[in-house]
Amino acid sequence: MNSFGRLFRITLFGESHGESIGVVINGCPAGLPLSIKDFSKDLRRRQAGAPGTTQRREPDIPIIKSGLFKSRTTGAPLFIMFENKDVQSKKYLSIRDTPRPGHADFVAQHKYGRHNDFRGSGHFSGRLTVGLVAAGVVAKKILAPAVVEASVTEVGGQKKIEETVESALKNPSLIRLNR
């Protein structure tokens, strides 16, 4: 499923190692003030750099191609894209024939009859979360003055988040799934 919502509908597009990825947002009211700077805080939160995250470094600068005029939404669909710059596709050649456990490689192969872009997990990559974050920025502006915030309160049942993540990175066999 690439599209979510009814009144505020988002559609994700692109692949992890394609030219770009992003989101199309339908249902954004006309006249909402919006600038590239509005995305900075939320996009910074999802960037790599924390322990356990990808080594890939992307600038994640939103390019608003339509739905915005004179820094205000027009009511037409918002088309927001992000260029992929740090692409190293050679690392992924082996997963064409050997899907990775815990990833969507196998599902993607079967869903799309092996026509999927497998590089970096293609359309099934965590990289596509940048489009979800962009949609969240717009949604929060629509909902203002209400404030939407989220935080991680525990990991694996443990309150000491950083220590638990660090321990899991050092010894992945200790990771247990709570079901």
Summarize the structure.
22% of the residues lie in helices and 16% in strands. It has helices spanning 40-46, 105-111, 129-143, 161-170; strands at residues 3-4, 9-14, 20-26, 63-66, 68-69, 72-73, 78-83.
Which regions contain 5 or more consecutive residues with pLDDT less than 50? none
Q: What is the overall shape?
A: globular
Q: Report the mean per-residue pLDDT as an integer.
A: 81
Structural class: alpha+beta
Please report the number of helical segments: 4
- In the sheet with the most strands, the strands line up as 1-2-3-7-4
Which bin fits the share of residues in helices? 10-25%
Write the layout of secondary structure elements.
Blueprint (H helix, E strand, L loop, with lengths): L2 E2 L4 E6 L5 E7 L13 H7 L16 E4 L1 E2 L2 E2 L4 E6 L21 H7 L17 H15 L17 H10 L9
Antiparallel strand pairs: 1-2, 2-3, 3-7, 4-7, 5-6
